[in-house]
Amino acid sequence: MVKHIVMWRLHDAVDGVTRRESAVMIKKSLENLQGRIPGLLHIEAGIDFSDSDQSADIVLYSELESRQALEDYQLHPLHQAVVPLVKRYARERTLVDFEV
Length: 100
Fold this sequence. Notes:
The structure is a single chain. By secondary structure, the chain is α+β, with helices and mostly antiparallel strands. The chain has a single domain (about 1-100), classed as Alpha-Beta Plaits, CATH 3.30.70.100. The protein has helices at about 20-30, 65-75, 75-90, and strands spanning about 1-10, 15, 15-20, 40-45, 60-65, 90-100. The strands form two sheets. Strands 4-5-1-6 form a four-stranded antiparallel sheet. A two-stranded antiparallel ribbon has the order 2-3. Strand 2 (about 15) and strand 3 form a beta hairpin. The N and C termini lie close together (about 5 Å).
């Protein structure tokens, strides 16, 4: 199994959409992928409440069947449809992929 974890720091506001509003949109869009992409076993997103200098604004935690499933997930049209939304509001991205 592969765990895919991504954290983003978001812009304070983009076209009148606040950081909090964009985090909620991203969370919903990512979690909407559950059960819709082969090989994606689990996906959840969380919005940070600590608001510290060290924290990210939103985190994605997902579990996939294999490295191939991760590659397929990243190329899947439903995932690709979410990418522009995230890129629009994110100013920084950090990720970790590992096998267990």
